[in-house]
Amino acid sequence: MFETLLENFTPEKNITIWLIVAFVLAFLIAFQTFPTILYVAKEKHLMDEPDSRSVHSDKTPTLGGIGIFVGLIVVMTLVGAFLNTKVLLLVMGGLTILFFLGLKDDLTVLSARKKFIGQIVAASLLIVFTNTRIIGFSKILDIDVLPYWVSVGFTLFVYILIINAYNLIDGVDGLAGTIACCISAIFVYLFVNSNELSLATIAIALCGCLLAFLRFNFSKTNKIFMGDTGSMIVGFLLAFFTISFINMAQLDKSSAYFKASPALAFALLFYPLLDTLRIFLIRVVIHKTSPFKADKNHIHHKFIKYGYSHLMTTVLISSINVVIIGIAFNLLHLNLNTQIIFLMLYGSALYTLPFLLKKIGNK
Q1: Please, what is the end-to-end C-alpha distance for the chain in angstroms?
Q2: Is the distance from CB of 270 to CB of 163 less than 8 angstroms?
């Protein structure tokens, strides 16, 4: 009976049930994994020591990425027989490369060069073997289709940018996890509408893993950080979702996002990209130091400095990002260049608003 059920089951005809099962399975696996990670980290003294940049005063494990990785890999392995095996295997390969690099960095120290090389290899696997790449600029600055190797190079740059931009926002309880969970949920909607069930399944599995992680990341007694392991694999998946979405839209002239996918992708990732651009300008132009030198000039650090709690900082930043995404969906009818200009204006204004309100309230 069970064998007959499996033979007759098709995810495409049971999308809602399929996605719920993938979400619940990912959540439960990750949720059951985190207590073990916490126990081992405490027993073996694998804890993060607070330093001058830390916004925490207690030693905390930074191995949350292990739980996220385990949840994702188990779900993708179990569902692989029903979906696009090639894509799932390549994603799992990329995740595994970044997982071990991130784990080494969390446990010892890994040079930026080795992490950079690992990110290039992981991204190249998907770009080359699935041909999933940004094929053009959709008339941004009047640039349309790119030559193949320029397209590959630009797509690789986008991967590296998103992975490292996401890593930079992991500095306040719940912020990186909440931002990624919201973005992934939007991608579930976009992929389901595009009949890309394999991608929707990975995205909703990531949501499940992240919700389980947030339960512990917000905890006062059993806190765990995402670490480089988590930030790299989550950033990698967000980059993969972004590039896959743009690629699908650019290849389908009937898509509602055919001419607007770059602007919508920019809106989804607006906060990490804005923070990265801002921090690089501060370091290079104002402080005249290396753009890779760590400091406390991130937007989330500024929220903390202005008196917002970790929770309120996460809620405000995440809420603003959701509002930005909502506005972007309602501007899809505009010219793409106009959408991007408006996005930069209203996005920057919205992230300035909490500081203005705080100043007014303190008067």
Answers
A1: 71
A2: no
For 181-223, write each residue's pLDDT tens digit: 999 999 999 999 999 999 999 999 999 999 999 999 998 888 9
What sign results for the dihedral spanned by CA atoms 322, 327, 333, 336?
Answer: negative
Q: At what angle do helices 197-217 and 175-193 cross, to 10 degrees?
A: 160
Q: Please tell me what DSSP assigns to residue 12.
A: G
Distances 155 to 37, 134, 234, 292 between C-alpha atoms, Å: 35, 6, 17, 22
Give the CA dihedral 206, 238, 244, 118, nearest 10 degrees.
-110
SS3 category, 18: helix
Cβ contacts of 244 within 8 Å, gap of 6 or more: 132, 191, 196, 199
pLDDT in tens, 3-45: 555 555 676 677 888 899 999 999 999 999 999 999 998 888 7
Structure tokens at 231: 């930030």
Helix (H) or strand (E) holding 126: helix 112-130
Structure tokens at 18: 């399929």
Cβ atoms < 10 Å from Cβ of 243: 23
Determine the 3-state secondary structure of 237 from DSSP.
helix
What are the CA-CA distances from residue 255 to residues 197, 222, 299 (Å)? 17, 45, 35
Q: CA 47 to CA 42: how far, in whole Å?
A: 7
Strand pairing category for 136-140 and 143-145: antiparallel
Residue 290 in tokens = 């290396």
Task: Read off the amino acid at residue 328.
Answer: A
Q: To which residue do tokens 């289709």 refer?
A: 145
> Using the 8-state DSSP alphabet, how is residue 10 labeled?
-
CB 71 within 8 A of CB 27: yes
- Distance, in Å, from the CA atom of 125 to the CA atom of 129, rounded to the nearest integer, reads 6
What SS3 state is found at 145?
Answer: strand
